[in-house]
Amino acid sequence: MNVDFYLYASLARYLPEDARAEKKTIVSVSPGTTARDLLKTFEVPEKEVKLVFVNGVRKNLDAVVSEGDRVGMFPPVGGG
C-alpha cells in the first residue's frame, strides 16, 4: 500500500533529492506501519519532529497509517 509522506521545513533534507522540491514522496508500506516507522525509513531523528499529521489530523508517532494516507511531519519552529 502507498502513503504520501511529507517532510516540511528543515526535515525536507531527509527526503530523496528528487522529492525535496515538493517536500513529499510516495512510500510503499506494509499493513501496521506507523508514523515512527516512516521516520526510521528516512533516518529522521525523532527529536527533530515536533508535529505529526495524518490526513490533516494531529497524531502521535504511534499512529498506524493506511492506504492513501497523507502523513506530514514538522520540526519545532521558533520565531519572535
Radius of gyration: 12 Å
Q: Would you identify the CATH architecture? A: Roll
Beta-strand percentage range: 25-35%
Q: Percent range for helical residues?
A: under 10%
Order of helices and strands: EEHEEE
State the total count of DSSP E strands. Answer: 5
Question: What spatial order of strands do you see in the largest sheet?
Answer: 2-1-5-3-4
Return residue spans where pLDDT drops below 50 for at least 5 consecutive residues.
none
Please name the CATH topology: Ubiquitin-like (UB roll)
| Largest β sheet strand count, sense and barrel closure | 5 strands, mixed
Structural class: mainly beta
User: What distance separates the N and C termini?
Assistant: 41 Å
- Can you identify the CATH superfamily? Beta-grasp domain
Average of the residue pLDDT scores: 95
Shape: globular
Number of helical regions: 1
Q: What's the level 1 CATH class?
A: Alpha Beta
Number of domains: 1
